[in-house]
Write a structure and sequence with these properties.
With 102 residues, the protein is of the alpha/beta class. It has helices at residues 8-16, 30-38, 76-91, and strands at residues 19-24, 46-51, 60-62, 97-101.
């Protein structure tokens, strides 16, 4: 196993990489959303929280998704699909990597 030598060029490359993080949540989890934003979410170059309602205080946006399970666990795949589409339409060319969590 070889460990890459971290030289100045490598460090410049690392520092130029931009990561966008997105989470899915619901209105009852605003305190958790705040905790994520203040911990690991704050280290991302971009961050969004998709929910079933827009709440500017909590920093969430209403991101509708297809299916009969709006806002329920069974609809998570549809919510993630909507998030991927939203990120693609709005942030694709601004970031190098995308991380989605819930």
């Amino acid at each position: 196993l070889q460990v890459a030598e971290l030289n100045e060029t490598t460090m410049e490359t690392f520092s130029s990489i931009k990561v966008f993080c997105a989470i899915y949540t619901h209105p009852g989890r605003n305190t958790l959303t705040d905790a994520i934003r203040m911990t690991w979410g704050g280290r991302c170059d971009g961050f969004m929280a998709a929910s079933t309602e827009t709440n500017h205080d909590a920093g969430t946006i209403d991101l509708p998704h297809f299916g009969a399970w709006q806002g329920k666990y069974e609809g998570i795949w549809q919510k993630v699909r909507s998030m991927i589409g939203y990120i693609y339409d709005n942030f694709l060319n601004d970031y190098d990597f995308f991380f989605i969590s819930g």
